[in-house]
Amino acid sequence: MGACTSKPSNLLSQNPSLPEPDVQNPNLTPRNGEGKDSRDGKEDVRIQNGKKSPFFALYTPSPANYPFSKKSPANSVTPKRFFRPPPSPAKHIRAALARRRGRIGGSAVSGEGGGEEGGAGLDKSFGFSKNFAGKYEIGEEVGRGHFGYTCCAVSKKGEMKGLQVAVKVIPKAKVCFLF
Ligand SMILES: Nc1ncnc2c1ncn2[C@@H]1O[C@H](COP(=O)(O)OP(=O)(O)OP(=O)(O)O)[C@@H](O)[C@H]1O
């Protein structure tokens, strides 16, 4: 039992008494007195240039092992890849919000509690109109929906004075996600 290594052992060079293996047939070990392949009187060139393994006849070394070789992939130039980041979705969101604000800003959306304490960028026209309490007198609740509740109210001023109307109250928290 001995250590198995992928590289040929240096035992041959260190111990000249050991026989040199046969190049053509690595399984066969030359007998004493047949140190080199003397069948044609030439040493195998593949052994000299080191590109072929003396032990594995069909072994072809990877060109990556020769960084100065022209065939080496280490010398090839990797084609450049231009990375273009995807467009930011923030632009689309901002545009949609701007459209929405412009549309809702002109309509009569009422919210609970006045809704004027928004931060920067909030639609200031959101909520009850300032003189809403002066125009209508809010009565009892007459029904509820998904977003809010409806109350009966009586108009105090203008052409509709004395008329009973329905006022739909939408809590601010239910509509804030639209902005
Ligand atoms: N003009 C009205 N007169 C009398 N009752 C009303 C009037 N408007 C609404 N109601 C009552 O209020 C309830 C809720 O009305 P609302 O319009 O909020 O319903 P909804 O459209 O289903 O609600 P949401 O839009 O929040 O889903 C109704 O089911 C109805 O009973």
Provide an overview of this structure.
By secondary structure, the protein is α+β, with helices and mostly antiparallel strands. Among the domains are: 12-71, no CATH class; 108-115 and 124-179, Phosphorylase Kinase, domain 1. The chain contains five helices and three strands. It has helices at 11-14, 45-49, 89-105, 132-135, 172-175, and strands at 136-144, 149-155, 164-169. Strands 1-2-3 form a three-stranded antiparallel sheet. The longest helix has 17 residues, at 89-105. Residues 9-48 and 105-119 have low confidence and may be disordered. Adenosine-5'-triphosphate is lined by residues 142-148, 150, 166, 168.
CATH topology of one domain: Phosphorylase Kinase, domain 1
SSE order, one letter for each helix or strand: HHHHEEEH
Helix content: 10-25%
Present as ligands are:
adenosine-5'-triphosphate
The CATH architecture category of one domain equals 2-Layer Sandwich
Distance between the termini: 78 Å
Strand content: 5-15%
Low-confidence stretches: 9-48, 105-119
Neighbour order of strands in the largest sheet: 1-2-3
C-alpha-based Rg, rounded? 46 Å
Largest sheet: 3 strands, antiparallel
User: What count of helical segments does DSSP give?
Assistant: 5
- What overall geometry do the principal axes of the alpha carbons give? rod-shaped
Instruction: Tell me the total number of β-strands.
Output: 3
Average of the residue pLDDT scores: 65
Give the C-level CATH assignment of one domain.
Answer: Alpha Beta
Structural class: alpha+beta
Supply the key terms.
single chain; 179 residues; alpha+beta; Phosphorylase Kinase, domain 1; three-stranded antiparallel β-sheet; 19% helix; binds adenosine-5'-triphosphate
